[in-house]
Amino acid sequence: MIDLDAIGRDLVAAHALRVERTRRRRRTVRAAGFALAVAFAFAAVAVASDIGPGLQLDPTKWTILGRGSTDDARGEYVHAQRVQDGSPSTFIVEHDAGLPPYQAFLLHERTRGAADATSPVRVREEPGALCSAAELTQAERVALTRLAAFPAGTAADATKADVDAAVQAAFLGNPCRGLEYASEQARLVYAGVQPRILLMEGAR
């Protein structure tokens, strides 16, 4: 006799694991930039593809310059230098499974802040104070409204410029730190990369 309950539990567990792995991959970012003789290049954020669980970098590709963590290691970061060309990068991962959306945002900001404070290159900082829960919700709503102009499932990178511009315009004159995060959250949900439940409740 087939145990449908057991199969159901296995499917739910497998899906939960896949979502967590997806979120960890999404939260793994690289801030890359080159130090110049007179001024520092601002760091650009991109997905890191050659990094393992727990920020284990390939030693044939990266030299570790330093590392740290926040929130009892829920947020972790590693500063490294690419062996091939000497360019510095910072890798960040946030284990935010189970956190309410705004708490996940706060974890992101604490981890990013700690990483930026010890970064070997200057990083671009968003202006303004930290976004409140209401402001983050509003920013996600604006982002989703702009995304409606694109076909559902459009890749997050393809909508970044338009959605970022719409969110920034909505907060023109009164920006807060976290608008880029809100834009990314909305774009990833719209692209089908992560579930809508990760958005702020008022933006779902």
Task: Please supply descriptive tags for the structure shown above.
single chain, 204 residues, alpha+beta, two-stranded antiparallel ribbon, 5 helices, disordered N terminus
Task: Describe the fold and architecture.
The structure is a single chain. The protein has 204 residues and is an alpha+beta fold. Helix content is 41%, strand content 18%. The chain contains five helices and seven strands. The protein has a five-stranded antiparallel β-sheet with strand order 2-1-7-6-5. The protein has a two-stranded antiparallel ribbon with strand order 3-4. Strand 3 (51-52) and strand 4 (56-57) form a beta hairpin. Helix 3 (133-147) crosses helix 4 (156-170) and helix 4 crosses helix 5 (179-190). The longest helix is centred in the N-terminal third of the chain and has 24 residues, at 4-27. The protein is globular and about 45 Å long. Residues 1-52 have low confidence and may be disordered.
Helix-strand layout with pairing:
Layout lengths: L3 H24 L1 E4 L11 E4 L3 E2 L3 E2 L4 E9 L4 E8 L5 E7 L6 H17 L15 H15 L8 H15 L8 H12 L14
Antiparallel strand pairs: 1-2, 1-7, 3-4, 5-6, 6-7
Helix pairs in contact: 3-4, 3-5, 4-5
